Amino acid sequence: MIRIAAVGDVHVDKDVLGRYRPALEELPDRADALLIAGDLTRHGTVEEARCFATEFGGLGVPVVVVLGNHDHQSDLQDAVTGTLTDAGITVLEGSATVLEINGHRLGIAGSKGFGGGFAGACASNFGEREMKNFVGTTEEISARLGEALRSVECDALVALTHYAPVPETLIGEPLEIYPFLGCYQLGQAIDSAPTALALHGHAHHGSERGRTPGGVPVRNVAHPVIKQAYNVYQLLSETVDTELLPA
Ligand SMILES: [Fe+2]
């Protein structure tokens, strides 16, 4: 069995330092890796990225992340990625990594993802150049996630995004903003590979559990949704969910 801890939308800045750390110190006893589903920082500055690395790095288990929209706010996403990478944190964007855990290969493919909406209420690649650019971004990012997922050779495959791949985990958010919270193309990408679990964040008022049209379990691990430092999910097991009392 592989146990993965996951959380998203931790929005670290100086004033957040120390808030998660006490619970994280116990993480290596409870999980084999930590996956973080974007919005690591508040405004995507290098200083905030350093604070994030201080809070979530050096745990004794691998830490794998994707960036969120907040991590792009200062247009410094490359510098933020570099700061995290220098701290030993793996940052995925249309790419994948494989971790050796308990004799098993855990494959993780990740991307920030993007908005666009879901079946019956989505933006279409038509009309103004601005709209084509918007939906083109949705399609390109989703296609790259699909390629990354299909490229991994592993025993258990996880998709990690910031934006949501299904509307089910958005329930609780205003319907009007669903197109800004995720897109169906991410779900199609996840279903194009033998994905065992899809994790995302971004929807602070959403719901934890959903499923792609292809049947892949989806979990919204945004911190305001899971209400604890991290949730633990298990792979190569009958069910993905575990009961973990709040730390
Ligand atoms: Fe977000």
From TrEMBL:
- Which Gene3D superfamilies has this protein been placed in? 3.60.21.10
Q: Where does the Calcineurin-like phosphoesterase domain lie?
A: 2-79
This protein's record includes keyword Hydrolase: yes
A Pfam family hit: Metallophos
**Under the GO molecular function aspect, what terms does this record hold?**
metal ion binding; UDP-2,3-diacylglucosamine hydrolase activity
> Mind listing the UniProt keywords for this protein, alphabetically?
Hydrolase, Metal-binding
Q: Which InterPro entries match?
A: Calcineurin-like_PHP, Metallo-depent_PP-like, Metallophosphoesterase_sf, UCP008292
- Entry's Gene Ontology BP terms: lipid A biosynthetic process
CDD domains of this UniProt entry?
MPP_superfamily
Q: Which GO terms describe its cellular component?
A: membrane
Q: What is this protein called?
A: Icc-related predicted phosphoesterase
The top of its lineage is: Bacteria, Bacillati, Actinomycetota, Actinomycetes, Micromonosporales
